[in-house]
């Protein structure tokens, strides 16, 4: 029971789900309980810190807040130390070396089909110049190669990784965890923060293919723009997805 709480903070809210913070408790409300099933199952399997599940009463999942703060925010410089970024890389390596989860993820073929659809939409609706879309689509295709499946977070963005000083305190939002390309996670975390890629790989390992990570930056940005726009987010904000695409020009 939460007593003495005066404020309710809306962390994120859109048509699919909402997350509220009440004191030191996060309440996640999801209309599709399959995502919550994945989140809970993934957190039980991974070897890195995750929020404590306090209770679950569908459609609500209550999680304890993690100590520390997010590694950063998209569109803003990250003030986290190089060691904190390296700690995030080391955590990603531990995750990717875990046994695969029993549920599947998206294949390269599925990503290719989505890329075809979203690029046609971006050009056909005049959302972005055709040359910008075409250039980034060519870059993105390098990510669509055969990969060895790994246990991935699936939405390993900068606001989902928490640190306290140089130490990683946990990773949140596991609803998209699945089998997939390990480099997708690394690209998601460094999207819009490519200057921190060296710090991340210092903890993850230098064997990661940087060209494929760059390809995922383009692919993820191209796929995200329509969804972000339709759910009340602004992919054209400074440092966000459209700037990521422009940087490839």
Number of strands: 10
**Helix and strand composition category:** alpha+beta
How many structural domains does the protein architecture include?
A: 1
Helical percent range? 40-55%
Can you tell me the residue ranges where pLDDT is under 50 for at least 5 consecutive residues? Answer: none
Q: Quick check: average pLDDT?
A: 95
Quote the CATH topology: Aminoglycoside 3'-phosphotransferase, Chain: A, domain 2
For the sheet with most strands, the description reads:
5 strands, antiparallel
CATH superfamily: Aminoglycoside phosphotransferase (APH), C-terminal lobe
- Per CATH, the class reads Alpha Beta
Principal-axis shape equals globular
Distance between the termini: 53 Å
SSE sequence, one letter per element: EEEHEEEHHHEEEEHHHH
How many DSSP H or I helices? 8
Assembly state of the chains shown: single chain
- Strand residue percentage: 15-25%
**CATH arch. level architecture:** Alpha-Beta Complex
User: Mind telling me the C-alpha Rg?
Assistant: 18 Å
User: Order of strands in the sheet with the most strands?
Assistant: 1-2-3-5-4
């Amino acid at each position: 029971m939460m007593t003495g709480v005066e404020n309710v903070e809306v962390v994120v809210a859109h048509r699919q789900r909402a997350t509220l913070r009440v004191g030191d408790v996060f309440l996640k409300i999801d209309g599709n309980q399959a995502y919550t099933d994945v989140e809970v199952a993934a957190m039980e399997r991974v070897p890195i810190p995750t929020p404590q599940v306090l209770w679950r009463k569908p459609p609500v999942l209550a999680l304890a807040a993690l100590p520390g703060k997010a590694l950063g925010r998209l569109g803003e410089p990250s003030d986290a130390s190089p060691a904190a970024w390296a700690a995030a890389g080391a955590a990603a390596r531990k995750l990717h070396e875990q046994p695969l989860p029993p549920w599947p993820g998206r294949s390269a073929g599925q990503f290719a089909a989505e890329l075809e659809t979203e690029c046609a939409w971006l050009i056909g609706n005049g959302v972005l110049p055709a040359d910008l879309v075409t250039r980034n689509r060519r870059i993105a295709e390098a990510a669509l190669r055969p990969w060895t499946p790994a246990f991935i977070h699936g939405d390993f963005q900068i606001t989902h990784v928490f640190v306290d000083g140089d130490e990683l305190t946990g990773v949140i939002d596991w609803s998209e965890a699945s089998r997939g390309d390990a480099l997708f996670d690394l690209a998601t975390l460094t999207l819009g923060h490519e200057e921190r890629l060296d710090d991340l790989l210092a903890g993850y390992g230098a064997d990661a293919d940087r060209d494929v990570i760059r390809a995922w930056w383009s692919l993820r940005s191209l796929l995200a723009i329509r969804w972000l726009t339709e759910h009340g987010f602004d992919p054209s904000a400074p440092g966000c997805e459209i700037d990521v695409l422009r940087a490839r020009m």
